[in-house]
Amino acid sequence: MHTNFRRRTFALATLAAALLAGSGAFAQDKNSIKVGVSVGNGEQIFEVVKKVAAKDGLNIQVVVFNDYQLPNAALASGDLDANAFQHQPFLDNQNKARGFDIVPVGLTITAPLGFYSRKIKSIDQLPDGASVGIQNDPSNGNRALLLLQSAGLITLKPEAVKNNNATPLDVVTNPKKLKLVALDAAQLPRSLDDLTIASINNDYAEKAGLSLNKDAVIKESPKSPYANLIAVRRADKDKPWAKRLVAAYQSPEVKSFIETQFKGSLVPAF
Asked: What is the model's pTM?
């Protein structure tokens, strides 16, 4: 009896361990996830991503944000499983400033930045003393200043350019005496009537009815280093569902949709 009891106990323990291992694998390879995206083109692209992922048995619930400061906080707190709205310099800055431990798992699109205006049709018409809106977050503000420099409107301290952390304090020359106005990214489209030109991220520009190819008076090259990415918590970076999400986004169907729908205003980065 004693031997049989020990055998039964061992068998039950083995079965319990197998069940626990199986449940752990199931939890890691969950089939339903929440992904945060920014308003506008991110929503459109993820409608296609959702359909591709569904073929692989992965259900994606898309959560739309109107503020760049919120998706990483939601991801870090566990309200999201992933997000897809930012480039690496923005993520690096948020991790450093807010103590997040969020990592990239795959590239999505490059969204060239543009300066827009309701007052001029060409950058050659920019008057002296013009008010120029730029983003007030460090990574996009730096990006806007670099774009102004590439257009020959200002020059920046070489060290700030090298470190990708330029601010208006790093402007060395400003021959047109431009007035740099730093605002929240979401406010810039609404401030166009008060500014001569403004740097506006692609998703906010699209929401405001602005086209990079038709309306921008300055725009980045499509080969800009600011490729957007899918991000997750570090603990999830090797989970099977994360790899399935990236595979769905980087599918031929999604690539074709981006190229056809956005005609160069967004470029696949994969």
From this structure: 0.78
pLDDT tens, position by position, 176-229: 999 999 999 999 999 999 999 999 999 899 899 999 989 999 999 887 789 999
What is the distance between the alpha carbons of residues 60 and 47, in angstroms, rounded to a whole number? 9
Residue holding tokens 């996009």? Answer: 140
Residues 6+ apart with CB under 8 A from 98: 72, 73, 76
Residue type, 169: L
Q: Are strands 197-200 and 114-116 parallel, antiparallel or unpaired?
A: antiparallel
127 contacts 268 by C-beta, under 8 angstroms: no
The sign of the dihedral angle between the CA atoms of 207, 208, 213, 217 is negative
Give the pLDDT confidence of 6-25 residue by residue, as tens digits.
444 444 444 444 334 444 44
Check if the beta carbon of residue 94 is closer than 8 Å to that of residue 216: no
Sequence-distant (6+) residues with CB within 8 A of 13 are none
